[in-house]
């Protein structure tokens, strides 16, 4: 900001506010256009001044959309923190500066070799430079050997922003220059960039050890800016309460002859990502009561000791099991880089780690099937041998999973909401044939997979076999299994129980956004082989087969697709996106659309 366009925008803003204010006065006081009785005093008398301030503030916010612009009564105006004393009043006496440093900074070593620093005020950069020798002696030397550092800002009332770069320089490697933030001052019409300093007196804490900033509702101004920058620079973890949201980048002015105060931002605080911070409280990574923040920070430090090994273990699992090994190499490398660059510092527990890993895996690989979840008990594996049902259980499965009907016009309708394992299908084969016999002589067949989330894919060849001729066998698809490094051509079966539907009668498959896994594989196969018309919504885009693998000895598990499927039609690898229907329709309307298409053909 600061250019002519910015000034023009501000002018239009306040012109709009003036017009709105004029309309408010006219409505409340019946002011006439000829100007009679149009003095501010008349409006003031007709509209209580408190209500006017509230209304003006509302209109200002609705136009500006900037929370820093505030109109209040003087008694409700924002707290103004007193400026620091003039530097000339601060003597250069070393004993005095030592006493000042001891009073400003409180330092101790906590259990687990964790350093602790508390300071309740940011001072001017020139003053901080005056006492830098004492600061090094009192702060950086005592904590230089610690493994992690807690910086307590729960009672920090802010101060000048120019000292931020000095403090942040101690938390980065001095070998590289890093842009920290930029301040645009409208009054002076100046833009100032702040970077880490190339030379500091004391030992650098570096960029790899953990930094944990404690905040409270009372953390204000430069204290908030420090916490905000720790987050935006990925340098540390914020623990505590949301900060006050009162940046001291504004000036307050009295509206003449009233008790109304308007607060205007006169400076923009721009972070290292070129984002202008409009204020509002800094939201901690771990939100707890201020009194509990130190204890919570120590718990987060303990958890963070596991993160690196868990992130690396995810990369190793991908290398061993992921169906696309060339992508696995890139994902593993990128995960390590993100950890090194501090992107996992906001993670505070297993739940947030699982969420972050899932987001990173899917973003890097562009494969939404990859995901990480946490579970207190070992999850059931889809690779376990399924239980063979008894006769009573078989009847229950048939009645629960399958719905078969013959619609008007001799149209078969078959709905099933789960793909069973081949061993289970064979065990209930005789009952399934009875269901199938209702449909085998129909004119056309609608297969409803809108609510089928998939499961086992081992029965897909048997299901497909009923829809093709016995000779020659039909190539359905090819599977490459990364775990076993084997390639398998999946074909229709030479023999089945009961009568085949054959290759000529029309098949319509209904899909929705729920259709996934093995149900999706069946749909894609039938579409590839041009054996069915697909109607409905794009499918989930799931995997034919995914393995579930424990991440180290933790309660985290990774679901990793371990198979690549190649189309029998063109030999291309099936994509990770869902199957696009031939006829796109809302899932709820798919059956009606299918009936209309069949009726039109007749």
From TrEMBL:
Stored CDD domains: Peptidase_S41_IRBP (cd07563)
SUPFAM superfamilies xrefs: ClpP/crotonase (SSF52096)
InterPro entries linked: ClpP/crotonase-like_dom_sf, Tail-specific_protease
Pfam families named among the record's database cross-references: Peptidase_S41, Peptidase_S41_N
Coiled coil: none
Tree of life domain: Eukaryota
Gene Ontology MF terms: serine-type peptidase activity
Swiss-Prot/TrEMBL GO biological process terms: proteolysis
Tail specific protease domain ranges (all copies): 93-289, 390-586
Name of the featured protein: Tail specific protease domain-containing protein
């Amino acid at each position: 900001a600061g250019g002519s366009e910015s000034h023009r925008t501000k002018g239009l803003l306040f012109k709009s506010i003036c017009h709105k204010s004029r309309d408010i006065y006219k409505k409340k006081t019946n002011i006439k256009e000829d100007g009679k009785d149009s003095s501010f005093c008349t409006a003031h008398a007709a509209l209580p001044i408190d209500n006017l301030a509230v209304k003006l503030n509302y209109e200002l916010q609705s136009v500006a959309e900037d929370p820093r612009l505030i109109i209040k009564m003087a008694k409700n105006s924002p707290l103004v923190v007193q400026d620091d004393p003039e530097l000339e009043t601060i003597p250069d006496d070393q004993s005095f500066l030592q006493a000042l440093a001891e009073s400003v900074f409180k330092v101790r070593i906590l259990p687990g070799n964790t350093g602790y620093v508390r300071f309740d005020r940011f001072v001017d950069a020139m003053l901080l430079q005056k006492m830098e020798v004492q600061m090094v002696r009192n702060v950086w030397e005592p904590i230089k050997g610690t493994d992690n550092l807690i910086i307590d800002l729960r009672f920090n009332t802010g101060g000048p922003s120019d000292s931020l770069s000095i403090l942040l320089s101690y938390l980065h490697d001095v070998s590289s220059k890093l842009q920290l933030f930029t301040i645009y001052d409208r009054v002076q019409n100046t833009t100032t960039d702040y970077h880490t300093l190339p030379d500091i007196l004391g030992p650098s804490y570096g960029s790899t050890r953990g930094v944990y900033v404690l905040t409270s509702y009372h953390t204000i101004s430069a204290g908030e800016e420090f916490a905000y920058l720790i987050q935006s620079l990925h340098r540390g973890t914020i623990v505590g309460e949301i900060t006050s949201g009162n940046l001291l980048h504004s000036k307050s002015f009295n509206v003449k002859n009233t008790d109304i105060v308007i607060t205007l931002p006169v400076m923009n605080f721009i972070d290292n990502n070129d984002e202008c911070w409009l204020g509002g409280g800094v939201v901690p990574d771990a939100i707890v009561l201020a009194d509990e923040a130190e204890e919570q920070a120590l718990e987060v430090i303990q958890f963070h000791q596991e993160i690196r090994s868990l992130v690396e273990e995810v990369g190793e699992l991908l290398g061993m099991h992921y169906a696309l090994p060339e992508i696995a190499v890139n994902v593993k490398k990128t995960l390590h880089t993100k950890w090194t660059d501090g992107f996992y510092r906001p993670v505070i527990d297993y739940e947030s780690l699982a969420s972050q890993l899932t987001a990173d895996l899917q973003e890097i690989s562009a494969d939404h099937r990859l995901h990480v979840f946490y579970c207190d008990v070992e999850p059931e594996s889809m690779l376990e041998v399924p239980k063979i049902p008894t006769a009573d259980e078989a009847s229950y499965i048939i009645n629960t999973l399958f719905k078969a009907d013959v619609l008007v016009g001799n149209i078969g309708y078959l709905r099933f909401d789960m793909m069973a394992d081949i061993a289970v299908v064979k065990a209930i084969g005789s009952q399934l044939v009875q269901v199938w016999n209702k449909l085998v002589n129909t004119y056309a067949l609608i297969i409803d997979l809108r609510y089928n989330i998939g499961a086992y894919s081992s029965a897909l060849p048997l299901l497909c076999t009923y829809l093709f001729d016995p000779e020659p066998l039909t190539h359905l698809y090819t599977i490459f299994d990364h775990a076993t490094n084997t390639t398998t051509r999946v074909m229709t079966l030479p023999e089945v129980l009961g009568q085949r539907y054959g290759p000529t009668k029309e098949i319509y498959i209904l899909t929705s956004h729920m259709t996934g896994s093995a149900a999706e594989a069946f749909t894609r196969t039938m579409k590839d082989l041009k054996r069915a018309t697909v109607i409905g919504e794009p499918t989930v885009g799931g995997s034919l087969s995914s393995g579930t693998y424990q991440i180290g000895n933790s309660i985290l598990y990774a679901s990793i697709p371990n198979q690549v499927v190649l189309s029998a039609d063109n030999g291309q690898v099936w994509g990770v996106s869902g199957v696009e229907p031939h006829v796109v329709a809302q899932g709820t309307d798919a059956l009606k659309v299918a009936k209309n298409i069949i009726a039109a053909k007749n």
